[in-house]
Amino acid sequence: MKLFECAHSRTGDKGDISNISVIAYDPKDFDHLARHVTAEKVRAHFDGIVKGDVVRYEIPSIGALNFVMQSALGGGVTRSLALDPHGKCLASALLAMEIPDRAV
Description:
With 104 residues, this protein is an alpha+beta fold. The protein has one domain (3-75): Alpha-Beta Plaits. It is built from three helices and four strands. β3 (54-59) and β4 form a beta hairpin.
C-alpha cells in the first residue's frame, strides 16, 4: 500500500533542512507506521536527494512521526537550482512510499 492511504503530512523547511511529519488518519495505524516508516527507510527513499542524516521523532499522542532531514534541499531554497526544493514537494514524494498492508 502507499503511505498516503493511511497518513497525511505537514512540512517545513529552514535553510538546507527539511522537516516532514507523517500523521496517521486513524490513531490505530500509528504502530503500523512506526514499524514500517523508519529513518533508514526514509533516507533510502530519498537516496540522491537527502545528503545528510535523517532523524525520526515519535509523537504517539497525535499518531505522528516527524522526520528531520539534513542537507535535503540542495543547499537551501534560495540557493538551489531545483524547480521546487521546498519540503512540500518532498512530503508528496514520501507519501508515495510503499509500506506493507495493514493487518485486517
